[in-house]
């Protein structure tokens, strides 16, 4: 069912929703704490009948954290005060993780931390996947929780564990075109101002940090770590110079060609969870054509703060207005210029 994450205030969230029963059971003070937060912001994802499916509260902190053992030294931090997701087969957890990172980058913190009871195995697995490491424990009358910390200043060289940081040194960079009918479903945080947010459904490919892009264009020269700047093609409702826009930055995880898949089932199993295509479309529009095809798996690292139109892009780069953009190489200087025009947060870029 459609489920869109929204930013609201505690006072506009129904504490009586069964979603909160487990939190009330785990934290005796939760109802009183919830009421005290009445005017503070919180992210909520709701499904059919306004049933809550995800809840995220974030708080910026400065200084040491002394109520954990061992304590955390002085730093600028984003605390994940509350995080709960109803797992139902989509990648909603990944979308909430992305929202945590988005806030951390925007608030320019050094690290993020979260406390979790050890029985929440799925959440712990999700946190570890994106670079959170167990650092401390926190003991209260409710029990002992594990404290997980993720640095945004230290890098490991692992694309997933370093996410959303973008390493640019020695990486190839390209503009990659995508049709408008697929763009917002694949990149929900890059929705355009004139698009209806109801088109963002709670589907695996929408919520996931990881995206799959399928093409007949030869992209075999891509390597893990290379950078793709997403170019949303025109919707033909006006001149392309105004309707085509640059919206996002992704990092390549891996590239596969047709020969890497033993059969249709293998191809569908790999692509379907993270692509916009149905099984039938994957079969008829891609596999059954028999043409050479490539599959790019990539992480969705950043939505541009400002969309750059085709006209402004080509003018800034000194390119002809007839330049064809599909899989278009960028020099380091051109990428820097595109990122600056798109107001990509400098905290995301690692030289």
Fold and architecture overview:
The chain is an alpha+beta fold. It has two domains: 5-154, Gcn5-related N-acetyltransferase (GNAT) (Aminopeptidase), CATH 3.40.630; 162-350, Archaeosine Trna-guanine Transglycosylase, Chain: A, domain 4 (Roll). The chain is 26% helix and 33% strand. It has twelve helices and 15 strands. The protein has helices at residues 21-26, 30-36, 92-106, 121-129, 159-162, 180-186, 204-207, 240-243, 264-271, 279-286, 310-317, 332-341, and strands at 5-9, 41-46, 52-65, 72-85, 111-116, 133-140, 143-151, 166-167, 173-178, 210-215, 227-232, 245-257, 294-309, 327-330, 349-350. The strands form three sheets. It has a seven-stranded mixed β-sheet with strand order 1-2-3-4-5-7-6, covered by helices on one side. β3 and β4 form a beta hairpin. It is globular, with a radius of gyration of 21 Å. Residues 192-206 have low confidence and may be disordered. InterPro entries: Acyl_CoA_acyltransferase (IPR016181). This is N-acetyltransferase domain-containing protein.
Describe the oligomeric state of these chains in a short phrase: single chain
> How many beta strands in the DSSP annotation?
15
- Describe the sheet with the most strands: 7 strands, mixed
**What's the helix-strand series?**
EHHEEEHEHEEHEEHHEEHEHHEHEHE
The proportion of strand residues reads 25-35%
Number of helices: 12
For the record, the CATH class of the largest domain is Mainly Beta
CATH architecture of the largest domain: Roll
- What global shape is seen? globular
- In CATH terms, the superfamily of the largest domain is Hypothetical protein
Q: Rg to the nearest angstrom?
A: 21 Å
Domains, number: 2
Mean pLDDT across every amino acid position: 90
Arrangement of strands in the largest sheet: 1-2-3-4-5-7-6
* Fraction of residues in H or I helices: 25-40%
Protein name: N-acetyltransferase domain-containing protein
Organism: Caulobacter sp. (strain K31)
């Amino acid at each position: 069912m459609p489920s869109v994450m929204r930013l609201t205030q505690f006072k506009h969230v129904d504490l009586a929703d069964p979603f909160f029963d487990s939190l009330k059971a785990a934290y005796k003070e939760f109802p009183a704490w919830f009421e005290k937060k009445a005017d503070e912001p919180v992210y909520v994802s709701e499904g059919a009948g306004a049933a809550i499916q995800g809840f995220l509260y974030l708080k910026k902190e400065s200084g040491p954290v002394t109520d954990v053992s061992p304590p955390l030294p002085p730093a600028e931090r984003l605390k994940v005060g509350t995080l709960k997701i109803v797992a139902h087969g989509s990648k909603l957890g990944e979308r909430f993780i992305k929202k945590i990172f988005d806030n951390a980058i925007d608030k320019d913190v050094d690290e993020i931390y979260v406390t979790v009871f050890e029985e929440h195995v799925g959440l712990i697995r999700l946190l570890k996947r994106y670079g959170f490491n167990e650092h401390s424990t926190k003991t209260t009358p409710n029990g002992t929780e594990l404290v997980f910390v993720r640095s945004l200043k230290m890098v490991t060289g692992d694309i997933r564990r370093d996410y959303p940081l973008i390493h640019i040194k020695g990486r190839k960079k390209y503009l990659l075109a995508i049709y408008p009918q697929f763009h917002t479903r694949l990149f929900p945080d890059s929705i355009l101002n004139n698009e209806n947010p109801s088109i963002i459904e709670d589907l695996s490919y929408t919520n996931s940090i990881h995206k799959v892009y399928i093409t007949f264009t030869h992209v075999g020269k891509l390597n893990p770590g290379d950078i793709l700047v997403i170019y949303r093609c025109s919707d033909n409702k006006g001149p392309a110079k105004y309707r085509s826009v640059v919206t996002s930055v992704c990092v390549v995880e891996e590239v596969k060609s047709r020969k890497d898949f033993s059969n249709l089932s293998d191809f569908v199993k790999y692509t379907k969870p993270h692509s916009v295509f149905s099984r039938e479309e994957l079969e008829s529009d891609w596999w059954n054509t028999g043409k050479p095809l490539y599959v790019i798996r990539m992480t969705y690292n950043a939505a541009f703060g400002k969309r750059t139109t085709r006209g402004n892009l080509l003018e800034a780069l000194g390119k002809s207005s007839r330049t064809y953009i599909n899989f278009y190489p960028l020099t380091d200087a051109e990428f820097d210029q595109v990122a600056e025009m798109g107001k990509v947060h400098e905290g995301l870029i690692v030289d």
